[in-house]
Here is the input.
Amino acid sequence: MGLELRVPEPDDFVAFMEPVWRAFGEPAPSAEEIDDERLLWEPERSLGAVDGSEWVGATGAFTFELTLPGATTAPAAGVTMVGVAQTHRRRGVLTALMAAQLDDVAERRDPFAILTASESSIYGRFGYGPATFSTELELRTDRSRFRDPLEGRGRLRVVRLAEAGDAMAAAYERCRRQRAGAVDRRKEYWQRVQRDRPSSRDGASALFVVTHTDDDGEPDGYATYRIKQRWPSGLPDHTAVVTDLYGVDPDIEAILWRFLCDIDLVATVRARTRPEDDPLRWRLAEPRQLRTKDLSDWLWVRVLDVPAALTARRYATEDSLVLTVEDRFRPASGGRFRLETGGDGADCEPTTAGADLILGAEELGAMVLGGVAPSLLARAGRIDEPTPGALARADSVFLCEPRPFCGTMF
Ligand SMILES: CC(C)(COP(=O)(O)OP(=O)(O)OC[C@H]1O[C@@H](n2cnc3c(N)ncnc32)[C@H](O)[C@@H]1OP(=O)(O)O)[C@@H](O)C(=O)NCCC(=O)NCCS
Here is the structure.
């Protein structure tokens, strides 16, 4: 490749990010945009490719806590800021960055690397598999009646964004610990949300926040949304574009949905990033009115340390399975392991016993959060089952409800 891989110094930020901004179609980000990105940047977890004095490739990582099935958590490297200069593409720059970054993640003893991908063609070769999915939900408010009335409890408040930071952060922190696939959001994340730059509004209003508090006044849910106004022939036809909706239990999420569907002048509620298994459909008197659009992969997961990753989560059933993980990109992370699952934990050790299932790192990444059935991957020809019946057992062991979901873009 003939390039040097280098950890940037804090002062290198703009030069380091230049190939990323350009790769995403932005030749000259504003000072505000640069500042927004810098707010979350972790220079010591970043790696650039340098050609002479020019930074031509980049990758970075956020220090995340990832929620796993059973409401446990594990450290995860949130891979971000990935781009290669157009002048240097398809020469192996990304491959070199990914290899060095995974070594660094392994050295830090993070069992997982995770990312959200610009294209689904890029990361499978590096051992990442799509583990959570997201869908856009759209509902006409005049067809949004619930089949059963909601029990009123707690209190809703529409709050100014500048004053909502603590309530959103407190409610999110409770919610993210309950759902596999979620990541923590640091104070800088909320600062960035609160900056609410006009460039991120896509023609809609500034951000509204509605918070829900329990009977003791503790925040237990919130939604953020924008109003896109339309007055065709003088008739109100606004859309509420929901960017976040979290409640510590499903009833609070239903209260927030009800609130959104009852906003006067709003004809449509559109939520961009929702779990596939949002129970809203089952609350509606006309469930077909809830349109599910653009189902897409969201969180990609890469396991670096199989025993650490598999013992960090909880499992639905007791069993013992031998998994052969063929890790083509990083052979040191592969091997054959016996996974023994029990009520409150699991053991996982290297073994020489015969394999029940043979899979790649990509397939392990896809199924480790419990959202993708091993038998589904096998039906796509991606897992082998030397022991008859092992797939059905693996489904029972690995799958979790509710399905894992990540609503954070990074
Ligand atoms: C994606 C990107 C970083 C790839 O960088 P790169 O240095 O060209 O990648 P490499 O040369 O290491 O490619 C490695 C392999 O992946 C393939 N590949 C890379 N990017 C690909 C893409 N977008 N689609 C399909 N295949 C891709 C290459 O063809 C190559 O395959 P091979 O090993 O069979 O020859 C670069 O194209 C880019 O900056 N894209 C725009 C920004 C972006 O999408 N970043 C990712 C953010 S999540």
